[in-house]
Amino acid sequence: MQSILSSSFVQGMMKATNDMWLKGWDERNGGNISMRLSKEDVAPFTHDFYREPRCLTLSHPVPELANCWFIVTGSGKFFRNVALDPADSLALLQVDEKGLSFKIQWGLVNGGVPTSELASHFQSHSVRKQVTAGEDRVIMHCHATNFMALSYVVELDAARFTRLLWEGSTECLVVFPQGVGIVPWMVPGTDGIGEKTAEQMQSHTLVMWPFHGIFATGPTLDETFGLIDTAEKSSEVMVKVIAMGGMRQSITTSQLIALGERFGVTPWAAALDVESGYVS
Questions:
Q1: 117 annotated active-site
Q2: How many Å apart are CA 158 and CA 268, to the nearest integer?
C-alpha cells in the first residue's frame, strides 16, 4: 500500500508551498492553499485516514461543496516547513452531506485547524465550481510583493489596474483575459471578505486584496501558481516603470485586441475601454 505522503496531491502541495516560499510570497505563516479532490483521488489512501476524525463546524454553509474532498494548508503553518513535515502542515478534509461541517481525515498530526481563510476559500470554490463546470479546483492566497506594492500607489479601479498589468507584459492578456477583481480592504479570516471575494470570482480568476495580497484560482496547482507568477512579474515591471517616471509608450488598445484574436481569448471589455493612468 502506498502512503498518502506519496500521493500526487500531497506531493503537489509540498512543491507549491515551497515554490511560493522561495518566491518570497509567503513569509512566516502568510498565505494558504486549498485544492478540491475527487473521491477517486483519495480512495487509494483510506488506510492512512484517522479512525476517529475530528469534526468542525463551518462558519458559512457551503451546500455547493457537499461531500467534496479538499487538501488545505493549516492555520499558523509556515510554508517553508510544509515539505519538511507535510503531515503536520496539511489537512485532508471532507465536507458533510449538507455543507455545514467537515471532518479532518488526515494531517495536522500535532493538532491545529485548517487555514483561517477556509471560509473565503470555500466561498470562492463554490463559485468557481459552478462557473467553470467543476474545472477550477484550486484557490491560492499569497502576499505577492510587487502586486501588493502597487495597491498603495495605483487607483483601486479594477479595469484600470487590469489594463496596467496587461500593458506591463504582453502575455498577461492571454493568461488572464478576464482581468483582476478588487475588493475593498477588509479584516481577513472573516465571512465578509470571503463573500466579497467570491463575488469577484464570478468573473475574475485573480482578485486583489489591497495592502494584503492576491487570491487566485485555476484548474491545477501549476496553473494557479503560474497565474499569480505572471501577474506578479508584470507588477514588478510596472513598479520599476513607475519608479523611472512612468511610461513613454506602451501596448495600444488595437494591439491588445489583436493579441486576443491571435490567441483566441476575449479580453475584458472594461479594461480595453480605459487607460492605465501611467502614460507620462
A1: yes
A2: 11
- CA distance linking residue 208 with residue 92, whole number of Å: 27
Paired residues of 217 in beta bridges: 139
Sign of the CA dihedral with 212 first, then 218, 220, and 223 last: negative
State which H helix or E strand residue 18 sits in.
Answer: helix 8-23
Indicate the Cα dihedral angle 248, 260, 225, 278, nearest 10°: 20
Label residue 151 by pLDDT band (50, 70, 90): very high
Instruction: Say how far apart CA 191 and CA 9 lie, in whole Å.
Output: 27
Residue 92 one-letter amino acid:
L
**pLDDT the model gives residue 191:** 87
User: 222, 223, 217, 239: which is closest to 147 by C-alpha?
Assistant: 239
Band of the pLDDT at 277, cuts 50, 70, 90? low
- Could you give the strand order of the β-sheet that contains 206-209, starting from the edge strand earlier in sequence? 54-57, 101-107, 90-95, 69-73, 32-37, 138-142, 213-218, 206-209, 180-182
Q: How do residues 15-73 score in pLDDT, each as one tens digit?
A: 999 999 999 999 999 999 999 999 999 999 999 999 999 999 999 899 999 999 999 99
Q: Which residues pair with 71 in a beta bridge?
A: 35, 92
pLDDT tens for 182-192 read 999 999 988 89
* Burial class of residue 175, CB neighbours in 10 A (0-12, 13-18, 19+): buried
pLDDT of residue 278: 59
Choosing from 117, 167, 232, 236, the catalytic residue is 117
C-alpha cell at 162: 487590469
